[in-house]
Structure to design on (1918 residues):
């Protein structure tokens, strides 16, 4: 029984506390005045009576009523029913009240004008029951009594109200007494009477019609949204202008959440003054009047439901998890059928008559029925996941969340996860968990209706029927007797309401009278006997277990039976010791274990092999079992929702192997790597389920006998189903009150000790799985969230790490102990946390808890000790079945830095090796990675057993590493996520490795650190080229002594006054910043800003060679001279050294020694070619105009036209203007800038005047004329070439003007449109390409604008005369400029050219170094992708295009070809781009290569690279990022780009180069490998300073260590022809002009090829050794056995093709050498053999007037060139020689292109004896034009179908062949000029072939006839 009302309060307007019209309320009276003990008086009622604030109003408002809800500190809800009416106040009263506050008195009347104002007054009932209508009636009655002045005194009414007592809930089956209970008629003594119906079951909420109202206001979707939000603990705010509606909405929302109860802040009506509550961080459901809408706008995480507008607003940052499908859809359907039944039939042709929705009250219950049905489905089977861990003294129950989610297959579902984690569900478990209690509708539904619900799911109508039944029950519960619902309550009469104007205010009640009523009632209650309401308790049904549910849903994996079979078989094989069978099944088992069924099966199977908690295995069995366990755990989530880890937990402590005497290793030490073991929830769930089992066992034992008998009687079957723990607990709870005290305490104690013993057991188990086998490693702490990680030091090294590493670390004594205790501490902390939690929850006594805390550290310590022994022994075990690590072969001088670490090489994006494109799967492979001082090497064997005997090698020089990235890799076999590395090298090697589990993660870290140290040494001296042969301690930085005395003296001299303090790195690191123009003028002759100021104390002008260099240094200086490529300058006729010193004037150029001390320009060589007339002092001044002081110097001269090629850096930004200023501009004072620009002009003029053509010439021209004219000079080749240059210029510069000759020089600079690098625009109207060695520019549409035919005509060499074109006179006869300056467009802006200068500037846009860098990165990713992708946008060709690498090559080639053209037409060219050391170097080198055949030989190319790249200071170290200092600048392959261009030219002109493609690849590899010193450092100056430049000949210590790549190439070249190009047969003075279009360029195979058998093939010593090893093993293997096949399979990505399929000439040379060796002859060098053959062939060829095809296949030196360039490709690696040459058929009758000549097919049989000669004899044959007739011996061969001829009958060597297949007809001929005399006319006959006509002459006409007939018969036979 409960009081209907606790307090009655009268609240009024407080006149005393008004502040500026904002009033306050105050409690006028409250009854009773003393608080009840069981419910204290709630605070703040005044605020809730007027939630919008207390205000006075000018007009009376109607009375209002609403119910607010207050929650007290015990979280009990108090319902405050507020009845508010308005009472008039006189203004006088106000004024009185305000008199104290004079200021406000003036303002008040302004607020309320009328004489009368109204103040609110509220009557408030405070109750713990929610009977809204009853409260409305009661308070209305009090008001009516007051207004209508009824006879009943108000005190009586209030007194009765406060003493009214009603039952909380009725009985469940209302009989007569219960009827009394649930129906309570009350009267307040004013002639009124009310029936109060209390609900039958208190646990079901009462909703009236609030739920239906809520759905009407907001709609289905919105309410479902709010429902989910409330369950997942979001903040919800209702807005409405009606207070009662707010309360109803909140009540409705709580009603549909049943059976969950809302436990957060719940305020259906929030007063305006408390709005800041809305910013609380906790979830809430709150209602606020719409009046305050604006103040709710800035709430960021609150869901706002506007009841009046029907909207729900969800902020962006809030994500509401929806109900899981299909529940959401089904709920939605059911709700719409309740709320809108017409929807379903609205499309019917004959809709049923009545489809009206039910009445509001019924509809309300139907909606709640839908939600009950929903919860029954959501929580179905929840009771099977309850763990009961204590029964007495009261049940303690825990819910196993993971198991529930797993069995429902909803572990991924966000909504359910959040609900189960929420407070509401925790309350649900504690309320509904106990197994013995009274049940309600929900318990029944969730347990007994499961089958029915499952059948209904799919059919909405059945669902509706069920919902209607539930609705009926709910309605019945709320209104047990709908018939009796009668009320008799008076309402105030209309008249009294209208007359209320005059009435008095609500009186003060007599407190004593009211109190008397209350006391009287209390006394009566005391004497009355207590009402005992028997609670009907019973066992709560559990429903069917969950397992069945899921299986019936069919969530079992397809094909699972077969998989389970495989798992079972494999386990059987393992235990029967059939290891081979098991091994075969293993991969399939590991795949199957991804499925849940297979994992469950595994645990069951393994369980059968455990006897008495132990199963001892041998090593291999143990290994397999551990692998399977690991694989099983790998796929479990850390929640372990399927209980797999739980089932394995007993197994991992059961399976073991004996390691030694008394030492056993258990499986748990090998399965610790899984997250699940560090998950506290997992351990708790495991603990609770074990405790439950033990407690169940405890009670089953106690009542074993009787229990069993009962069971048998009940079931009749004898062995009934097992009693579940909950059923047992329920039975025990029922019996509990009947037990004696002793029995009770005994049971409590037994349960407590059961829990305690389990806690000890679990402390042990946890230490097993948490302590790593090697406790000195902190693996565990780092990979998981265990313990506080910061306490773990990370500088640990154990003795197990390889010695080489341990040297470099400090290992203190006692280190390991400290370390292991650290692991121990964190494990102890973790176990302590666990024990505290579970013991507190399960009521373990404090003494026991303390005992546990003292025990845990001992347990852990003890376990660590046993583990140490196990660890020690396990290390001695032979490793099982892992392939042995193969040692790599090292170069001489290369040393291991880190010994091999076992890794797996994972396949990357290249598919050749994985077997996807056919061929064996070579990857993934297992092996080891080695770090040496020079390389990173992987060596191992493929994991696929079919190719297991192959060896896979990948390696690259450590210096070429460009990117290293950590990755984590899933290994297919072991199901482990391993940490790994992805290493990318700029030699296009790529390694993706995963460390084996045996490699400690700290070891991997050490590996990375060493790798970085080697990749970026502090100084260039730390690179392999310097450290080779020394001990590897060089890795630690220290000063190296200079080895070379004479070098020392030189470098001392050079760097006498260097800033030593800077330290050595300074030289290479600091960027040279050019001084600005302003302080240029104050510059002295030395540069102060330079990095190292050199020899200041010697006067610069007096420095001559002899005076500055002491005799000890003379020898070194001669080295300088030799190195400075003087030989080359002499070859080119650019002056000799003696000349330069004795100043003879007859040479135009001289060698200047101005820079011999590297003072003029640090990055130039010591000796430079300058014009004869320029003194050194001028050079000192000129150099300042150029960046980095790189002024123009001559580097090559065209021997024919005597034009020179110069190179320099770009001008300084400000120098440009001075450079182009006209010399006669008036200046007041000649400034420094002017004089410098004059010097510059002089310098350029000197260069121009050195050209012979300058002195002869007269007249000049502009560039535009040059592009458009066709110059008429004596040289016809020039005549042909001219328009091409025009086209070239236009292409390179992209001029806009189509009309030639219209723009002057000045305009060129500004208006020239430059083609940017990224997209070369090629005109679409390109004509047919020009032939010959000219390739680069096809006649473009623009070029031929003035005459459409000129381009085509000139290009196609038809004739030198312009046929049909305009006459010569139309062309302007102008001449070219003498000097063209190729400059950077960006620098040349704004420069005006003067019309008197003889030079001209060609502005082009060069590629930025950054562009090259980015392009190269993309190229690497395209050629060697890190992972395979099916995205079409990531295909190889698309990525290649995106990289724009080809476009950059095109750009460089295009500019180079332009320069070649200009030089060839007699103009000099100065290339002056960027800093003069990147693009300039590329262009200048390519120009020389294309123009001068010498540079296309091996020696010449070396010289070219030494001269242009090394001497002229290309910054190799900086661009290659070779040291720590240049690491940030990144790798920029400028030199590689140059080599690629050379490769492109080589492809187009294969017969012009002495070196092979392999030579280029070799250089490309070694220029970044740091194996040689050649490409280290940035300039000659730095090389001299380090003493690298000249190593004296006798000084080399170890002959096998080569320091220069050139020496190495020379040595190798002597041994093997690998660098030689057999097709080399150059033409004299040939200038090459390659095609430069992107479509003509090919991807260099250097970027894509790979040889997995031996790694990159560029370190030859390694190749030799590997071959020797292979031969040895091969011979042994082939010792016995039958015949051996000659054939072998060659895999493109595995075998080295050049070895496996050598080209024929290499093969012959090799065979020759082998034969000579067998015969014991000393074999010649291959070169000598080759030269002999060549000369022999040449002499043979001379016998013929024209060399026949067969004899001069490779040596022909006068095949017309275009044919040669298109024809013979002797591929470097291939064996095919492509002989498709379209030579003109000559008298020697070369076979036709495109079909193989029959003579070549048969040539191997050619011997005179065995030939098939059908007819033979002598015939005279007419030679080619102007050649005489000659007698020859002709043979007609029917078999081979040809006519052959010989010099004489004895001659064995056929001189020529006429294929009869080509003969069209044989006719009688006429004697021609020069025919043999005295022969009759009929003896002549002609043979007409497709190509030409042959004229023959026989001895007489008869003979001729016979010949003609024979040939004819041959033809007809064919």
């Amino acid at each position: 029984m409960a009081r209907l009302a606790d307090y009655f309060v009268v609240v009024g307007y407080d006149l005393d506390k008004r502040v500026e019209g904002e009033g306050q309320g105050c409690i006028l009276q409250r009854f009773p005045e003393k608080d009840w003990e069981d419910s204290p008086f709630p605070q703040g009622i005044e605020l809730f009576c007027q939630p919008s604030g207390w205000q006075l109003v000018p007009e009376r408002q109607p009375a209002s009523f609403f119910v607010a809800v207050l929650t007290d500190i015990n979280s009990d809800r108090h319902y405050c029913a507020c009845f508010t009416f308005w009472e008039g106040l006189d203004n006088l009263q106000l004024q009185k009240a305000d008199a104290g506050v004079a200021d406000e008195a003036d303002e008040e009347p302004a607020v309320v004008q009328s004489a009368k104002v109204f103040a609110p007054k509220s009557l408030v009932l405070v109750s713990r029951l929610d009977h809204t209508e009853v409260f409305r009636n009661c308070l209305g009655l009090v008001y009516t009594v007051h207004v209508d002045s009824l006879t009943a005194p108000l005190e009586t009414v209030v007194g009765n109200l406060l003493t009214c007592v009603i039952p909380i809930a009725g009985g469940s089956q209302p009989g007569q007494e219960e009827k009394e209970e649930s129906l309570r008629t009350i009267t307040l003594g004013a002639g009124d009477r009310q029936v109060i119906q209390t609900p039958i079951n208190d646990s079901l909420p009462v909703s009236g019609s609030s739920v239906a109202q809520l759905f009407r206001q907001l709609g289905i979707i919105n309410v479902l949204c709010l429902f989910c939000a409330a369950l997942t603990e979001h903040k919800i705010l209702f807005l409405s202008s009606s207070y009662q509606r707010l309360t109803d909405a909140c009540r409705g929302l709580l009603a549909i959440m049943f059976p969950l109860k809302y436990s957060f802040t719940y305020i259906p009506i929030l007063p305006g003054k408390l709005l800041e509550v809305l910013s609380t961080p906790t979830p809430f459901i709150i209602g606020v009047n719409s009046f305050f809408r604006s103040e709710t706008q800035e709430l960021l995480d609150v869901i706002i439901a506007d009841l009046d507008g029907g909207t729900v607003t969800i902020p962006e940052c809030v994500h509401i998890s929806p109900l899981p499908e299909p529940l959401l859809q089904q709920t939605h359907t059911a709700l719409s059928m309740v709320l809108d039944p017409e929807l379903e039939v609205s499309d019917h042709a004959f809709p049923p008559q009545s489809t009206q929705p039910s009445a509001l009250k019924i509809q309300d219950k139907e909606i709640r029925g839908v939600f009950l049905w929903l919860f029954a489905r959501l929580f179905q089977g929840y009771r099977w996941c309850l763990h009961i861990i204590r029964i007495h003294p009261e049940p303690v129950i825990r819910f196993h969340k993971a198991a529930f989610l797993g069995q429902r297959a909803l572990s991924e579902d966000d909504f359910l996860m959040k609900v189960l984690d929420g407070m509401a569900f925790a309350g649900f478990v504690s309320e509904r968990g106990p197994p013995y209690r009274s049940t309600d509708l929900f318990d029944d539904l969730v347990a007994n209706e499961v089958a029915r619900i499952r059948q209904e799911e799919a059919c909405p109508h059945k669902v509706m029927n069920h919902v209607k039944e539930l609705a009926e029950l709910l309605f019945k519960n709320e209104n047990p007797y709908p018939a009796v619902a009668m009320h008799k309550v008076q309402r105030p009469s209309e008249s009294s309401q209208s007359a209320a104007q005059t009435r008095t205010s609500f009186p003060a009640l007599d407190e004593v009278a009211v109190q008397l009523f209350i006391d009287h009632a209390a006394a009566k209650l005391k004497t009355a006997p207590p009402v005992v309401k028997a609670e009907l308790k019973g066992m709560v049904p559990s429903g069917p277990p969950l397992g069945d549910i899921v299986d019936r849903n069919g969530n079992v994996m397809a094909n699972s039976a077969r998989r389970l079979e495989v798992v079972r078989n494999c386990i059987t094989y393992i235990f029967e010791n059939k290891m081979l069978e098991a091994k075969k099944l293993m991969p399939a088992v590991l795949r199957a274990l991804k499925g849940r069924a297979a994992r469950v099966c595994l645990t069951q199977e393994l369980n059968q092999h455990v006897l008495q908690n132990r199963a001892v295995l041998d090593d291999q069995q143990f290994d397999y079992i551990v692998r399977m366990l690991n694989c099983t755990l790998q796929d479990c989530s850390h929640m372990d929702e399927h209980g797999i880890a739980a089932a394995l937990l007993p197994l991992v402590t059961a399976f073991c192997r004996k390691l030694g005497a008394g030492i056993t290793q258990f499986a748990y030490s090998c399965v610790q790597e899984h997250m699940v073991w560090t998950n506290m929830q997992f351990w708790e769930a495991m603990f609770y389920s074990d405790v439950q089992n033990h407690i169940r066992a405890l009670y089953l034992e106690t009542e074993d006998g009787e229990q069993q008998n009962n069971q048998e009687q009940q079931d009749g079957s004898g062995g009934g189903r097992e009693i579940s723990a909950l059923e047992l607990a329920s039975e025990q709870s029922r019996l509990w009150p009947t037990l004696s005290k002793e029995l009770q305490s005994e049971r409590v104690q037994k349960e407590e000790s059961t829990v305690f013993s389990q806690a000890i057991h679990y402390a042990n188990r946890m230490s097993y799985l948490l302590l790593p086998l090697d406790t000195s490693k902190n693996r565990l702490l780092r990979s998981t969230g265990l313990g506080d990680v910061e306490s773990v030091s990370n500088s640990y090294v154990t003795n197990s790490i390889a010695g080489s590493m341990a040297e470099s670390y400090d290992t203190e004594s006692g280190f390991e102990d400290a370390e292991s205790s650290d692991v121990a501490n964190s494990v102890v902390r973790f176990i302590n946390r666990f024990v505290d939690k579970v013991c507190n929850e399960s009521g373990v006594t404090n003494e026991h808890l303390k005992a546990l805390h003292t025990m845990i550290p001992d347990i852990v310590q003890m376990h660590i000790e046993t583990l140490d022994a196990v660890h020690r022994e396990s290390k001695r075990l032979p490793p099982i079945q892992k392939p042995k690590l193969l040692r790599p072969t090292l170069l001489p001088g290369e040393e291991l830095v880190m010994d091999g670490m076992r890794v797996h090489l994972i396949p990357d994006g290249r598919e050749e090796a994985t077997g996807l494109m056919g061929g064996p799967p070579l990857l993934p492979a297992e092996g080891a990675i080695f770090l040496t001082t020079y390389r990173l090497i992987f060596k191992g064997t493929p994991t696929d057993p079919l190719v297991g005997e192959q060896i896979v090698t990948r390696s690259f020089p450590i210096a070429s590493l460009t990117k290293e990235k950590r990755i984590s890799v899933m290994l297919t076999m072991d199901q482990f996520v391993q940490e790994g590395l992805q290493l990318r090298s700029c030699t296009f090697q790529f390694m993706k490795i995963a460390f084996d589990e045996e490699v400690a993660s700290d070891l991997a870290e050490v590996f990375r650190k060493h790798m970085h140290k080697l990749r970026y040494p502090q100084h260039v001296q730390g690179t392999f080229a310097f450290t080779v042969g020394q001990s590897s301690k060089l890795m630690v930085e220290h000063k190296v002594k200079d080895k070379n005395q004479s070098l020392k003296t030189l470098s001392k001299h050079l760097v006498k006054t260097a800033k030593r303090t800077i330290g050595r790195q300074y030289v290479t690191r600091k960027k040279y910043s050019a001084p600005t123009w302003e302080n240029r003028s104050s510059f002295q002759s030395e540069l102060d800003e330079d990095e190292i100021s050199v020899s200041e104390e010697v006067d610069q002008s007096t420095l001559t060679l002899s005076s500055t260099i002491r005799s000890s240094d003379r020898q070194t200086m001669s080295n300088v001279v030799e190195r400075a490529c003087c030989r080359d300058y002499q070859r080119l006729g650019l002056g000799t050294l003696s000349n330069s010193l004795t100043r003879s004037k007859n040479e135009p150029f001289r060698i200047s020694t101005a820079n011999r001390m590297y003072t003029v320009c640090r990055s130039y060589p010591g000796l430079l070619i300058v014009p004869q007339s320029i003194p050194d002092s001028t050079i000192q001044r000129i150099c300042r105009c150029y960046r980095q002081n790189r002024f123009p110097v001559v580097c090559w001269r065209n021997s024919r036209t005597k034009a020179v090629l110069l190179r320099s850096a770009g001008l300084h930004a400000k120098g440009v203007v001075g450079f182009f200023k006209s010399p006669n501009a008036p200046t007041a004072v000649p400034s420094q800038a002017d004089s410098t620009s004059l010097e510059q002009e002089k310098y350029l003029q000197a260069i121009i005047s050195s050209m012979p053509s300058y002195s002869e010439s007269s007249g000049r021209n502009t560039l535009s004329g040059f592009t458009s004219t066709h110059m008429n000079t004596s040289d016809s080749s020039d005549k042909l070439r001219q328009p091409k240059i025009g086209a070239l210029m236009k292409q390179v510069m992209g001029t806009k003007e189509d009309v030639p000759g219209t723009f002057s020089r000045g305009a060129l600079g500004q208006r020239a449109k430059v083609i940017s690098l990224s997209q070369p625009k090629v005109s679409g109207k390109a004509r047919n390409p020009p032939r010959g060695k000219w390739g680069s520019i096809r006649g473009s549409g623009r070029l031929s604008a003035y005459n459409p035919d000129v381009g085509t005509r000139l290009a196609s060499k038809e004739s030198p005369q312009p046929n049909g074109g305009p006459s010569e006179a139309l062309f302007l006869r102008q001449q070219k400029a003498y000097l063209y300056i190729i400059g950077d467009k960006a620098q040349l802006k704004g420069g005006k050219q003067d019309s008197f200068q003889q030079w001209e500037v060609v502005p082009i846009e060069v590629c930025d170094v950054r562009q090259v860098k980015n392009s190269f990165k993309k190229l690497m990713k395209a050629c060697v992708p890190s992972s395979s992708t099916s995205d079409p946008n990531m295909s190889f060709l698309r990525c290649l295009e995106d990289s724009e690498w080809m476009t950059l090559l095109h750009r460089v080639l295009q500019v180079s070809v332009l320069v070649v053209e200009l030089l060839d037409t007699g103009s000099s060219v100065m290339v002056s781009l960027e800093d003069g050391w990147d693009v300039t170097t590329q262009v200048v080198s390519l120009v020389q290569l294309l123009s001068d055949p010498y540079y296309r030989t091996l020696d010449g190319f070396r010289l070219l690279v030494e001269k242009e790249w090394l001497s002229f200071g290309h910054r190799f170290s900086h661009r290659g990022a070779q040291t720590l200092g240049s690491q940030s600048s990144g790798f920029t392959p400028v030199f590689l780009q140059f080599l690629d261009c050379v490769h492109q030219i080589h492809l187009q002109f294969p017969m012009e180069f002495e070196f092979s493609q392999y030579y280029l690849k070799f250089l490309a590899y070694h220029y970044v490998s740091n194996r040689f010193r050649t490409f280290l450092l940035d300039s000659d100056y730095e090389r001299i300073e380090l003493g690298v430049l000249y190593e004296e000949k006798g000084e080399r210590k170890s002959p096998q260590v080569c320091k220069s790549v050139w020496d190495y190439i020379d040595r190798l070249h002597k041994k093997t022809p690998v660098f030689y190009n057999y097709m080399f047969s150059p033409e004299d003075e040939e200038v090459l002009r390659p095609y430069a279009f992107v479509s003509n360029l090919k991807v260099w195979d250097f970027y894509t090829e790979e040889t997995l058998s031996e790694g990159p093939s560029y370190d030859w010593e390694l190749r030799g050794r590997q071959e020797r090893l292979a031969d040895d093993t091969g011979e042994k293997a082939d010792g016995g056995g039958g015949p051996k096949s000659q054939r072998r399979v060659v895999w493109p990505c595995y075998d080295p093709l050049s070895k496996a399929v050598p080209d024929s000439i290499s093969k012959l040379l090799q065979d020759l050498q082998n034969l000579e060796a067998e015969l014991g002859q000393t074999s010649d060098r291959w070169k000598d053999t080759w030269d002999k053959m060549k000369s022999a062939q040449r002499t043979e060829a001379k016998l013929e007037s024209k060399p026949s095809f067969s004899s001069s296949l490779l040596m022909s030196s006068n095949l017309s060139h275009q044919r040669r360039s298109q024809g013979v490709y002797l591929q470097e690696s291939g064996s095919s020689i492509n002989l498709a040459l379209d030579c003109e058929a000559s008298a020697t009758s070369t076979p036709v292109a495109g079909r193989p000549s029959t003579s070549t097919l048969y040539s191997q049989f050619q011997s005179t004896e065995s030939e098939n000669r059908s007819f033979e004899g002598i015939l005279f044959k007419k030679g080619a034009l102007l050649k005489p007739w000659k007698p020859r011996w002709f043979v007609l061969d029917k078999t081979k179908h040809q006519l052959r001829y010989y010099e004489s009958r004895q001659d064995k060597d056929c001189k020529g062949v006429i294929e009869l297949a080509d003969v069209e007809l044989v006719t009688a001929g006429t004697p021609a000029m020069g025919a043999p005399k005295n022969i009759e006319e009929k003896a002549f006959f002609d043979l007409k072939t497709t190509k030409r006509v042959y004229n023959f002459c026989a001895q007489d006409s008869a003979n001729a006839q016979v010949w003609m007939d024979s040939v004819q018969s041959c033809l007809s036979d064919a």
In short: The chain has a mean pLDDT of 74. Residues 1452 and 1483 are 7 Å apart (CA to CA).
